[in-house]
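Supplementary Methods, section 5.1.

A reviewer requested that the exact input to the structure prediction be made available. We therefore reproduce it here, unchanged from the version used in the analyses.
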Amino acid sequence: MDTRPPPQLLRIAQAAQAIGVAPSTLRLWETQGLIAPHRRASGQRLYDDDQIRQLKQIAFLRHEQGLNPAAIRANLSQPPRDAEGGQDAGRARLARQLRSLRQDRGKTLEQVARPMGLSISALSQLERTGTGISLSALVDLAQYYGTTLSQLAGPAAAQSPLIRAGSERCIPVPVSGVRVEVLAEGERQMDCHRFILDPGATSEGRYEHDGEEFLTVIEGHFRIILDGTETHELRPGDSLYFASRRPHSWANIAPTRTVVLWINTPPTF
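The structure derived from this sequence is encoded token-by-token as follows.
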């Protein structure tokens, strides 16, 4: 017997408030074929958690990436693909760790979800499956618990300074199409990661943390937006250095995969 609570459904005004747009914007996106809400017999629109996540992605693609409706539809139609065969095991470990962090602090789902701007059902799904929120929201949640995504990935089997190709650990992330490989193990003063992004993969929102960071594009076409206004499009060989406290969001805008070498110091990602 399925004892899970029914999904939370938001009315259009509530959904618009959660996304930060006007209700008329949601109606426009519906006419453009970007979203199809549930309908009551009375015609009232209702949005479940998956649709709220989709609306957040639409808002990001429209307002921060500047995509038109046709490009957004193409982005949304990209089939989800896991870039890692062991992704399920990693997400299961992530779910257990996040659940333990909350329970060790004596917090309820509601006490954590509300200040993080998450629905209780989304946080519950994250703690069960390691999925259900954006990468940017996971970064914020890790900071809330006083940890980092790299630490949530768990300890390395070995602390060797040498990482052989194909032996990299991966940070479990709650979204498809994003693979984050750990390129430096042990006690260190920087995070060294390789991001491998499927077509259409995005951070699904802005995040920030302490420190400074450097990135260089190895393959593909990468867009990063700093402070919500400063946009940089990088191709292979292009590099960028910036303060990590500047809110940043990003997307793979290539029709194929994009690979980015990304370094943070101190190790706060």
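Residues 146 and 243 are 20 Å apart (CA to CA). These observations are discussed further in the main text.
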